[in-house]
Each structure stands twice: as structure tokens, then as C-alpha cells.
């Protein structure tokens, strides 16, 4: 872990908004208001927000695109909303740190507020491979390491180089290597020991310049089938991204019309012995290898469907008719209603399969000042 000096920075004043409606700023459309909100695009703006929150002793809650957050009716204290920088480097949303067109791998740097799907589209169009399987995932770049986003056989851990993390407590900018981020299946150090402790300011990724011998990840069954059907014998980053986008559009509801947070539960990971018993009883159970030795990952969507809960609705919440792992706010549900519904689903799966489902989206963790960080400590 390395620390950056910030001596050359000019201080900026924080622009505070009061009583801000965040219902349209979270993809589940949960009614939510922020008592106070500051939008941040740079380290200076984060520092100004910290200075303000510390002086007022306000807890700080971070929000990016709001596509993986369970927002309560009121967020007390200060919400810091990470937004995209006003202009990208050379018209692009990322900058290349590795120079020379002949170098095979390229390290790029991206600001936290950049839209992830835009980053994938731009890197793919520039002939850089590595992000194509992660096309169309909503949200910001800065939130990608928080749950180690993943899809179609690739996860952020496969390409992450390092992260710049601004620590609220110490007012320091830390550079964390991919190992120091401790990425796991929809998990990271930012969800554990560092939860709520600071903001990812920028992310560096290692991508590959596409060449005739570039290797792609195409083994995920739905992707392999789509590429075969499209007659793609020699796939490229662009053709893989196209196939992934088509699969996602056909399977996943669009939050703008059917508010949701993507997969609501993680695919449960069970011990090999428990899996063997399940397989005997349910030979068709969809399963995947797990990174944990002696364990197998099971498709949570299948478990929910087997409980007869595909397309099930109770009050203002439903499981989606095509993808039961996605919970949809069908109109007017708040966080309490959503959590009650989710508990019903998890309980049904537990009763039938003796498997505990774990939620993927979480309420954002707030940073709270300690006694020693009274205003004089700013
Ligand atoms: C339709 C749909 C499909 C999805 N598909 C996938 C998928 O295929 N794979 C997948 O992995 N996920 C998927 N997701 C979940 C979501 O897109 C990702 O988790 C995404 O990374 C969330 O980004 P965000 O900016 O919206 O995060 P937010 O919801 O704003 O924040 C999520 C968490 O990260 C914290 N956070 C946000 N920004 C920062 C920052 N800069 N620094 C520190 N902490 C921060 C927040 O405090 C919060 O705790 C999907 C969601 C939807 C709605």
C-alpha cells in the first residue's frame, strides 16, 4: 500500500444540497431522501466534502450509480455522490498509462464516477480486450471493485491492477494493489474492514491490445451458445461484447421500466458433500466451479424457480418472470417491503433445500466520526 502526497492541491469549497430526493438515483426506485448531499468528481472535491462533514460531525454515505444499493427512506448526515469528471482525457473516459502501440498489455486509469458500460464500450471500440464479458453492467467504475463485479465467466479481479482509495479517517489517498483489495466472489476488502471508510477515487486496469492470438473467455455456456449461433468462429472483444449485450437485454429487465438491482441473491456456494446429495435428488441442478476448494456454486435462480416462485408477486414486489433472481419494485415498494419479500424467498429456499441465500445488494455503510475527530482535528 502506498500513500500519495496532496501538497499541490488547491482547496475547493463544498456545494451542499439539502433534502435531496434519491428515488430516481437508485435503480430499485426505493423512496429515499438525503438530508444533505455533495457531488464529487475529484480528490479536491472529496477533501472539501470530508472537511465539511468533519466540521459538522456528519456521517458520510457514498453513492455511485445506485444500482446495487438498498436505500432507506432517509439517509442521515451527508451523502457523497460520486459523479463522472466533466471532461475525459483526450475525449475518452480513460487514459492509457502504458505508452507504445507495440506493448501487448496496456494499463488504463479511469475515474471512479465514469459509467462502467461506457468504459467497456470505449475500450472495446479501441481494440482493447479484457472487459468485453462485463459489457452493459450498470453503475460506476468506482463501485466495480466493491463487489468485484462479474458476468459471463469474467470478474473485475481478472483485470484489476490497482485502486486509489481516499480514506475519510486519515485524509490520505492510498494506492491499493489488486492483492490488497482482497477480491472474492461478489466480495472485497471494501465490503469488510474498509466498508464505509473511504471512497475509491480511480481504478487502474490491465487490458490487452487485440492481436490474432488474443485469448478470450468464451466458455460460459450462454455466451458459447450465442457465439456459436452467430457463427463467430474467431470471436473478438467487439463480437463478445455484442453477444453479451444481446443476452443481457433478452434476460434482464431494464431498471428504467422495471426497477431492480440485478441479481438480488448471490449464487450459494456449498460443500462438495452437500452438493453430491443435492445432485442425487435433482440431477438437473445447474452448478459452476467455485474458487473455494472442495465447494460448488449453485444457481440461485434455479433454486427460487424450483420453489415455484418465478414471477411470484406479493404486494409491490415480485420476482421477475424471466429471471427470478431479480426482484422488481412493481410500484411504490419501500426498503422494508422489499426486505420482507426477500426474506420470504430466502425462507422458501431454506425450507426446500437447506441452503441459505445471501443478499447481493446491501444498504450503504456510513462512515461515523470518532470522538478524536472533533472539528479541531480537521
Ligand atoms: C440490471 C442490473 C444488472 C446487473 N448486473 C450485474 C452483473 O452482471 N454483475 C455484477 O457484478 N453486478 C451487476 N449488477 C449490480 C451493479 O451494477 C454493480 O454492483 C455495480 O458495480 C454498482 O455500481 P453503482 O455505481 O451503481 O454502485 P452503488 O449502488 O452506487 O453503490 C454500491 C456500493 O458501493 C459503494 N460505493 C459506490 N461508489 C463507491 C466509491 N467510489 N468508493 C467506495 N464505495 C463506493 C456504495 O456506498 C455502496 O455500498 C447489476 C445491477 C442491475 C440494476
From TrEMBL:
One of its GO terms (biological process) is peptidoglycan biosynthetic process. Its cofactor is FAD. The active site is at 186, 263 (proton donor), 360. Pathway: Cell wall biogenesis; peptidoglycan biosynthesis. Keywords: Cell cycle, Cell division, Cell shape, Cell wall biogenesis/degradation, Cytoplasm, FAD, Flavoprotein, NADP, Oxidoreductase, Peptidoglycan synthesis. InterPro entries: FAD-bd_PCMH, FAD-bd_PCMH-like_sf, FAD-bd_PCMH_sub1, FAD-bd_PCMH_sub2, MurB, MurB_C, MurB_C_sf, Oxid_FAD_bind_N. It is found in: Cytoplasm. Pfam families: FAD_binding_4, MurB_C. Its EC number is 1.3.1.98. One of its GO terms (cellular component) is cytosol. GO terms for molecular function: FAD binding; UDP-N-acetylmuramate dehydrogenase activity. Gene3D superfamilies: 3.30.465.10, UDP-N-acetylenolpyruvoylglucosamine reductase, C-terminal domain, Uridine Diphospho-n-acetylenolpyruvylglucosamine Reductase, domain 2. It comes from the Bacteria. Residues 30-210 form the FAD-binding PCMH-type domain. It catalyses: UDP-N-acetyl-alpha-D-muramate + NADP(+) = UDP-N-acetyl-3-O-(1-carboxyvinyl)-alpha-D-glucosamine + NADPH + H(+). Cell wall formation. Belongs to the MurB family. This is UDP-N-acetylenolpyruvoylglucosamine reductase. It comes from Gammaproteobacteria bacterium LSUCC0057. The gene is murB.
Amino acid at each position: 500500500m502506498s500513500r500519495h502526497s496532496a501538497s499541490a492541491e488547491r482547496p475547493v469549497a463544498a456545494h451542499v444540497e439539502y433534502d435531496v430526493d434519491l428515488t430516481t438515483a437508485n435503480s430499485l426506485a426505493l423512496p429515499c431522501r438525503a438530508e444533505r448531499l455533495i457531488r464529487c468528481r475529484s480528490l479536491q472535491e472529496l477533501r472539501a466534502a470530508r472537511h465539511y462533514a468533519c466540521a459538522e460531525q456528519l456521517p458520510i454515505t457514498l453513492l455511485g450509480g445506485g444500482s446495487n444499493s438498498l436505500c432507506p427512506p432517509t439517509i442521515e448526515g451527508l451523502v457523497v455522490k460520486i459523479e463522472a469528471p466533466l471532461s475525459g482525457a483526450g475525449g475518452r473516459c480513460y487514459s492509457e498509462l502504458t505508452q507504445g502501440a507495440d506493448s501487448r498489455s496496456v494499463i488504463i486509469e479511469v475515474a471512479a464516477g465514469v459509467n462502467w458500460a461506457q468504459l467497456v464500450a470505449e475500450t472495446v471500440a479501441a481494440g482493447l480486450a479484457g472487459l468485453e464479458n462485463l459489457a452493459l453492467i450498470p453503475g460506476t467504475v468506482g463501485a466495480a471493485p466493491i463487489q468485484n463485479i462479474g458476468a459471463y465467466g469474467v470478474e473485475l479481479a481478472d483485470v484489476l491492477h490497482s485502486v486509489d482509495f481516499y480514506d475519510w479517517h486519515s485524509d490520505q489517498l492510498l494506492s491499493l494493489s489488486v492483492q490488497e483489495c482482497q477480491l472474492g466472489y461478489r466480495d472485497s476488502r471494501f465490503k469488510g474492514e474498509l466498508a464505509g471508510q473511504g471512497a475509491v477515487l480511480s481504478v487502474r486496469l490491465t487490458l490487452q491490445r487485440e492481436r490474432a492470438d488474443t485469448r478470450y473467455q468464451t466458455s460460459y455456456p450462454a455466451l458459447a451458445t450465442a457465439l456459436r449461433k452467430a457463427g463467430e468462429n474467431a470471436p473478438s472483444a467487439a463480437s463478445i461484447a455484442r453477444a453479451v449485450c444481446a443476452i443481457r437485454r433478452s434476460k434482464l429487465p431494464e431498471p428504467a421500466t422495471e426497477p431492480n438491482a440485478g441479481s438480488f441473491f448471490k449464487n450459494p456456494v456449498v460443500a462438495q458433500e452437500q452438493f453430491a446429495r443435492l445432485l442425487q435428488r435433482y440431477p438437473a441442478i445447474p452448478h459452476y466451479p467455485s474458487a473455494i476448494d472442495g465447494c460448488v456454486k449453485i444457481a440461485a435462480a434455479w433454486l427460487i424457480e424450483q420453489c415455484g416462485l418465478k414471477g411470484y408477486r406479493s404486494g409491490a414486489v415480485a420476482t421477475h418472470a424471466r429471471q427470478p433472481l431479480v426482484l422488481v419494485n412493481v410500484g411504490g415498494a419501500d426498503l422494508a417491503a422489499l426486505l420482507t419479500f426477500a426474506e420470504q424467498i430466502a425462507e422458501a429456499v431454506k425450507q426446500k433445500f437447506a441452503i441459505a441465500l445471501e443478499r447481493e445488494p446491501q444498504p450503504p455503510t456510513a462512515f461515523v466520526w470518532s470522538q478524536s475527530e472533533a472539528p479541531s482535528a480537521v
